Amino acid sequence: MKQANGFTLVELLVAMVAGSLLLVSLSWMLGSVTHILKASPKDETIAQVGELAPVLTRLIEQIPPPDKDVAAASIGADGASFVSQPPQALGADGMMTVTLKAEQQADGLGLVGEFEGQRQGRPWQRRDILAHGFSAIDFDARWPDAPGAPKLPSLVTIRFATREGETARIV
């Protein structure tokens, strides 16, 4: 009897299943890489706001009541300045002055934070770029209308806009 050259049906099915598994895993891997590469700088820019929000919210919530009729905070369209309790990580003594403002950076507007206070009886200062890469950064505050109400802002909003038109807010 003459032996036939070729593959059996079982061998062909095994090869097709192995090839299909290889193609599926390759397409899954390429999809993941494509997703990572598509993560645009605007996503990173907006992500900065999400990371920054809890810190700034806590600082703003720690603004102490003012003495007499003096406002505890100065908040305008281009920045904010206030006195607040410092985070424990700074190791500061007493209160610190916080100034937040928008400044032009190489990649667009950046939110700059300037912090001044006392540490172990000596004055200290720190200036950091907290977020960058925005086309606009605006500040807004609502103040209580009631006569005799403390001069504390009842609502502070910082709005960030990207070059693509997306916005994020810290309220």
Instruction: Estimate the strand proportion.
Output: 35-45%
User: Average pLDDT value?
Assistant: 80
Give, in spatial order, the strands making up the sheet with the most strands: 1-2-3-4-5
**Helicity, in percent?**
25-40%
- Main sheet: strands, sense, barrel: 5 strands, antiparallel
| Strand/helix succession | HHEEEEEEEE
What gross morphology would you assign? elongated
Radius of gyration: 28 Å
Q: Pick out the low-confidence regions.
A: none
* Structural class by secondary-structure content: alpha+beta
Number of alpha- plus pi-helical segments: 2
Let me know the number of strands.
Answer: 8
Tell me the span between the first and last alpha carbons: 87 Å
Explain this structure:
By secondary structure, the chain is an alpha+beta fold. It is built from 2 helices and 8 strands. It has helices at 9-38, 41-61; strands at residues 73-76, 79-84, 93-105, 108-119, 122-134, 136-142, 155-161, 167-170. The strands form 2 sheets. It has a 5-stranded antiparallel sheet, with helices on one face. A hairpin with a 2-residue loop joins strand 3 and strand 4. The protein is elongated, with a radius of gyration of 28 Å. The mean pLDDT is 80.
